[in-house]
Amino acid sequence: MKELFLQHAFLITTAVKCGLLLFIVLTVLAYLTWFERKMIAHMQSRWGPYRVGPHGLLQPAADGLKFLFKEDPTPAGVDRLVYFLAPALSLALGLTTLAVIPFGPEPIRIFGYETHLGIADLNIGLLVLFAISALGVYGIALGGWASNSKYSLLGGLRSSAQMISYELALTLSVVGVLLLAGSFSLRDIITAQEGRMLWGILPRWNILAGPAPQILGFLCYFVAAVAETNRAPFDLAEAESELVAGFHTEYASFKFAMFFMGEYANMIAVSCLATIMFFGGWISPFPTTPAWAWTYFLPSVLLAGFGLFVIWDGVHYETLFGKLVLPGVGAALCGLGALFALVPPVTSYIQGPFWFLTKVFVFLFIYVWARATLPRLRYDQLMSFGWKLLLPVSIANVVLTSLAILKWGGQ
Amino acid sequence: MTTVQTATGAAQTMVLNMGPQHPSTHGVLRVLLELDGETVVKAVPDLGYLHTGIEKTCEAKTYSQAITLTDRIDYLAPLSNNLGYCLAVEKLLDLQVPKRAQYIRVLLTEMTRIASHLVWLGTHAIDLGAMSVFLYCFREREEILKIFEMVAGQRMMTSYFRIGGLALEPPTGWLKAVERFVNMMPGRIDEYEDLLTRNRIWLSRTQGIGCISAEDAVALSMTGPTLRAAGLAYDNRKLFPYSSYEEFDFAVPVRTEADCYARYMIRVAEMRESVKIIRQAMAKIPAEGPIKAEAPGIVPPQREKMKTEMEALIYHFKIFTEGFSPAPGEAYVTIESPRGELGVFVASDGSPKPLRVHFRTPSFVNLQALPKLAEGRLIADVVACIGTIDIVLGEVDR
Fold first, then answer.
1. Is the Cβ pair A375, B383 closer than 8 Å?
2. Would you say the C-alpha torsion B3, B9, B15, B18 has a positive or negative sign?
3. Do A235 and B131 lie within an 8 Å CB cutoff?
4. Cα–Cα distance, A186 to A278 (Å, whole number)
5. pLDDT surpasses 80 at B37
6. Rounded Cα distance, B156 and B76, in Å
7. Run of H or E residues at B23
8. Among A299, A393, B281, B294, which residue carries the largest CB count within 10 Å?
9. Which B-chain residues 74-133 have CB contacts (< 8 A) with chain A?
10. What is the pLDDT of residue A183?
11. ∠ Cα A375 A377 A380 (to 5°)
12. What is the DSSP letter of A248?
């Protein structure tokens, strides 16, 4: 058994990791829709999903079933192959981007075989990521073109123009980070940000650290990333009030769901990238000195605290189903918190993934927040914003960073 | 399909059929857009999808019965329509409405104005992508509808104003609910303004969009906030006061930019003015007094009298079986509805049913300006323009 495993260790671990990541990501995608709906609902003083399961927690499952079983009419006059290919492409590319993202610092050891968190650890990870996300435009453009509908066509056109323009600013905005790290490997970019600065008060993340804090770079990156993923306030491609549903007007059932999931996967990918490049990836914001050792228990405290809240809420929930399920979920969360706190190897192991996911979550929240708050830009304003503001600023950022590194030295 | 000359040469245009089922044509408006890329070369509104023949139906009803139809013309401002129609018939009959009823009418129509502007602001904001404002606006509108329900027993199709006064005495304590509302509303308007007024994206989406000169606006006989945004302080409440509006102190907001932003600012300012008028009306409304004119044969008698006096019983019977017959003649009344000048024309031939009822509805007239506002601009601007004209398709098609 052990020999067989070690013989094919790479194959087996990669296959398992792929399966696991796919499972986790698809679940997270589903619950991201729940989170977004619930969050926006509360910002707009309403309840959001509430009927399917306690607090609407089974809503994603219900939506998934609905998408699967809904009638899927194919409009007349579509280019069949491209029409079917486009959503698949969108989803596949969205999920592929997540393959190169490292989620934690320490490897897992199985029978002495070490494997990292994250599927592929490429030395050109960033380039691969941008290459894949740049292909994402095909899904949308082809979908819009193949649908044989004027609204779809306009939506597809808009998004191709938008994604191509913002791709430039997006790529240029991270050049500063590359100059600082001197590597394309996402893992190296994170490790280059280790350490403390300003007498140990602040972490040496790229957003803050000298010689050239990447504040401009981050702002450009995040704006361009929101535009790249076609999210509000740059959601022109599917601008509901203008183009009905934009490029996916003619898509229904699971094909629509694939576009939808692709969009959310992209959201997660660019949030991960923002975390990695500007916010130190899995590096904790607290110092590693013994005086700060208590921060190791933050994950457990948060989980257990949230678990207790869920139990309390469950006991008071109005339906019997909720009364049964919610305390169970809360207890599971508390148990997980206890596991994290009481088993020392686990405690230290989960630090990296915990901080990584927390930061990603913050970015996802900002995405949702922006959608609830901001009006939509107009097509020409979006283009001029991208070309006349974002691009020059990101080029300026490259120049400033290079000069700073020349003067004060890099790593 | 026509060919247009662009910077790079001749290009084919595409016709986009926007509506009648489209998220931002506010009902069933259909606009045929001729597009060169995303630029609108020509916009042709196509009306009539919601035509219900209200004016013709009025001719088959008695004067009092027709009130229920007026609710359904502009379903976002039912009380304004009620008021316009009642004032026209009262003019035809030369009927004096008691002051108390007049003040209550003013209070309720101003609430209607706020409710209507709230729906406008919400839908306009969601058209431009700001979805939260929509829900905030509907939250406050709900409060207004609750007050309507309290007073008239109906949330939307109120039919509360009757010929000669009001349908029934408002319940005790209703002014407390109104007071709660007017105390809350200014803060809530600040909330919408926080989200929009200085928002860079909002400014770039509305400033300089859909401009129309005052001359053009007058030539198209536009009225309401759209005209006032072009610099003309034309407001029927000030110029041709009705229902004792001359006793109220309020400003008519005017701006000169004539773009979508100016129309937005005007409507927001009007909401604040309406709150002011409601406050004044609350102070003016006497605690007791008649709510119906003294006009036996036209205004139904009080139940008490009907049970004790034979004449009252006869009038009651006549009013509810045959109706009343005004002397032959005609009357035209204009009021300031939330959307502009609402004119009501009623002609009588001496029978209990009107010979002709016509509504000069502001939405219908203002919609004429759409091609002028939208042509040469982008699709996204068409949506903004439709939004700021503030059309209600029920009113356009009647």
1. no
2. negative
3. no
4. 11
5. no
6. 8
7. none
8. B281
9. 125-132
10. 83
11. 165
12. G
For B54-397, which CATH class?
A: mainly alpha
| Nearest residue to B159 via CA among B242, B65, B295, B237 | B65
pLDDT (average), residues A87-105: 85
What does the angle CA A275 – CA A277 – CA A283 come to, to the nearest 5 degrees? 60
The pLDDT-based confidence of B118 (bands split at 50, 70, 90) is very high
- B374, B123 Cβ separation under 8 angstroms: no
Residue B23 contacts A, CB cutoff 8 Å: yes
Query: Where do the structural domains in chain B lie, given as residue ranges?
Result: 2-46, 54-397
Tokens of B196: 């929009």
Write the single-letter amino acid at A170.
Answer: L
Residue A374: which of B126, B130, B139 has the nearest Cβ? B130
Using the structure block, give the residue that is written with the tokens 């191709």.
A160
Q: Cβ B129–A40 below 8 Å, yes or no? A: no
* pLDDT surpasses 90 at B332: yes
Nearest CA in chain B to A242: B380
Cα(A352)–Cα(A191) distance, integer angstroms: 12
- φ and ψ at A182, to 5 degrees? 70, 25
| Amino acid type, B23 | P
**Pairwise CB contact (< 8 Å): B130 & A379:** no
Domain boundaries, chain A: 70-283+376-411
Q: Tokens 């796919």 appear where?
A: A22
What's the pLDDT at B4?
Answer: 53
What pLDDT is stored for residue A410 in this prediction? Answer: 55
> Which three-class secondary structure state does DSSP give residue B343?
strand
Nearest-angstrom CA–CA distance, B69 and B54: 7
Instruction: Compute the half-sphere exposure of residue A400: CA atoms within 13 Å on the CB side of its CA.
Output: 17
* Rounded Cα distance, A111 and A93, in Å: 33
* Per-residue pLDDT band at B1 (split at 50, 70, 90): very low
Q: Between A and B, how many CB-CB pairs are < 8 A?
A: 81
Neighbours of B258 (CB within 10 A): 24
The pTM of the full predicted model, rounded to 2 decimals, is 0.85
Residue B318 has pLDDT above 70, yes or no: yes
Query: Of A242, A372, A381, which has the smallest distance from its Cβ to B204's Cβ?
Result: A381
3-state helix, strand, coil in chain B (%, to 5): 50, 15, 35
pLDDT at A239: 63
- The answer to whether the peptide bond before residue B20 is cis (omega within 30 degrees of 0) is yes
Q: Test A244 with B22 for CB contact under 8 angstroms.
A: yes
- pLDDT band at B7; cut points 50, 70, 90: low
Backbone angles phi, psi at A358, to 5 degrees: -60, -45
- What is the average per-residue pLDDT within B144-152? 91
Q: Which of A378, A379, A389 to mutate to test the interface with B (most CBs of B within 10 A)?
A: A378
Q: Residue A276: name the closest of A348, A336, A192, A196 by CA.
A: A192
Q: Rg of chain B's alpha carbons, rounded to an integer? A: 22
Which chain B residue shows the shortest CA-CA distance from A382? B201
Report chain A residues whose CB lies below 8 A from the CB of B38: 154, 158, 379
Say whether residue B22 is in contact with chain A using an 8 A CB cutoff: yes
